[in-house]
């Protein structure tokens, strides 16, 4: 029986019923993990999701304390993942999102004042209060690397770490006051429509070219795809796009829905996605997966 070659006809081993996932508290990954959790539950699995720092996620995958991670941002997370991928303790499954980006951002009025590149930051250090605003501790390594680069002259600066929500609250406060702020920006994310913002050039060394142009991939612990081929087939199929994720993240951030509720709402609005996601996928006990999910979600 191949992992991705066709429908998995036999029920999976009992050990596969519990699927352990994690995400670092980013709304895009909370939403996509919520989609995965929703589908797995309707297929008869018992998924669990943990909120962990990126470094802990990779160590947990290596130690086989986690099974699945839907949120490898490449290249933003390469410093965290590289050694695990090279040694084979973490294995790639598929790219689940293309067209993402991730780098420093500022409000447009700051950009128009002359902050258009990483190299411009030091010229306005006092206006920025020598601060860069990041997200959760353990998720800001590239920002910290920029501080350590002598060419940027940011050695006296600090990274303010809090959470995605905390960072965005600071951006909102600074925008209201028309004051200077530089922060971790990315797409997909509703921040791109919530704020009039610009991405800075000059960060290729840290985030990669084209404003940190990125892909997001699904990864599993070593051997998981062979142990649990039906879940692996679902993971192989589970792909997203910027528009779908922006919508789902809006349900989290603006409507206050929990990740699985946001996922269920997004799926209900676009049920055709299920056909591709569940192609060749069965329930845990070997029945047709598409029928089970449609029935479970009342579609």
Question: Would you mind describing this structure in some detail?
Answer:
This protein has 299 residues and is α/β, with parallel strands linked by helices. The chain has 2 domains: 16-98 and 214-296, 3-Layer(aba) Sandwich (D-Maltodextrin-Binding Protein, domain 2), CATH 3.40.190.10; 100-212, Glycine betaine-binding periplasmic protein, domain 2 (D-Maltodextrin-Binding Protein, domain 2, 3-Layer(aba) Sandwich), CATH 3.40.190.100. It has 15 helices and 9 strands. The strands form 3 sheets. Strands 3, 4, 7, 8 and 9 form a 5-stranded antiparallel β-sheet that branches. Strands 1-2 form a two-stranded parallel ribbon. Strands 5-6 form a two-stranded parallel sheet. The longest helix has 16 residues, at 27-42. The protein is globular, with a radius of gyration of 20 Å. The model is unreliable at 1-9 (pLDDT under 50). It comes from Rhizobium wuzhouense. It holds the Pfam family OpuAC. This is Glycine/betaine ABC transporter substrate-binding protein.
Write a brief structural summary:
The chain has 299 residues and is of the alpha/beta class. The chain is built from 15 helices and nine strands.
- Number of beta strands: 9
**What's the overall geometry?**
globular
- Per CATH, the class of the largest domain reads Alpha Beta
The residue ranges in which pLDDT falls below 50 over 5 or more consecutive positions are 1-9
User: Could you tell me how far the N terminus lies from the C terminus, measured between alpha carbons in angstroms?
Assistant: 31 Å
Task: Enter the CATH topology name of the largest domain.
Answer: D-Maltodextrin-Binding Protein, domain 2
Class computed from helices, strands and strand pairing: alpha/beta
Largest sheet: 5 strands, antiparallel
Shape-level CATH architecture of the largest domain: 3-Layer(aba) Sandwich
Count of all domains: 2
Compute the CA-based radius of gyration.
20 Å
Order of SSEs: EHEHEHEHEHEHEHEHHEHHHHHH
- CATH level 4 superfamily of the largest domain: Periplasmic binding protein-like II
Helix content: 40-55%
Q: Treating each run of at least 4 consecutive H or I residues as one helix, how many helices?
A: 15
Mean pLDDT: 94
What fraction of residues sit in β-strands? 15-25%
């Amino acid at each position: 029986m191949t992992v991705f070659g066709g429908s998995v006809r036999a029920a999976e081993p009992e050990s596969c019923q519990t699927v352990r996932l994690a995400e670092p508290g980013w709304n895009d990954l909370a939403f996509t993990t919520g989609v995965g959790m929703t589908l797995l539950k309707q297929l008869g699995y018992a998924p669990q999701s943990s909120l962990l720092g990126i470094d802990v996620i990779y160590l947990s995958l290596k130690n086989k304390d986690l099974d699945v991670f839907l949120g490898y941002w490449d290249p933003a997370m390469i410093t965290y993942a590289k050694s695990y991928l090279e040694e084979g303790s973490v294995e790639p499954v598929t790219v689940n999102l293309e067209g993402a980006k991730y780098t420093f951002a500022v409000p447009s009025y700051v950009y128009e004042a002359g902050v258009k590149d990483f190299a411009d930051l030091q010229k306005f250090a006092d206006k920025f209060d020598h601060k860069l605003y990041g997200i959760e501790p353990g998720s800001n390594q590239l920002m910290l690397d920029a501080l350590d680069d002598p060419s940027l002259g940011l050695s006296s600066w600090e990274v303010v770490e809090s959470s995605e929500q905390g960072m965005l609250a600071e951006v909102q406060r600074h925008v209201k006051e028309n004051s200077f702020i530089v922060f971790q920006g990315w797409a997909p994310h509703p921040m791109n429509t919530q704020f009039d913002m610009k991405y800075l050039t000059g960060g290729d060394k840290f985030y990669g070219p084209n404003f940190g142009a990125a892909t997001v991939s699904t990864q599993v612990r070593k051997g998981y795809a062979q142990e649990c081929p039906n879940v692996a087939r679902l993971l192989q199929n589970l792909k997203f796009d910027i528009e779908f994720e922006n919508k789902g993240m809006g349900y989290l951030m603006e409507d206050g829905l929990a990740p699985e509720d946001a996922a269920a709402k997004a799926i209900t609005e676009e049920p055709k996605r299920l056909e591709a996601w569940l192609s060749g996928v069965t329930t845990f006990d070997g029945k047709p997966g598409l029928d089970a999910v449609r029935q479970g979600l009342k579609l």
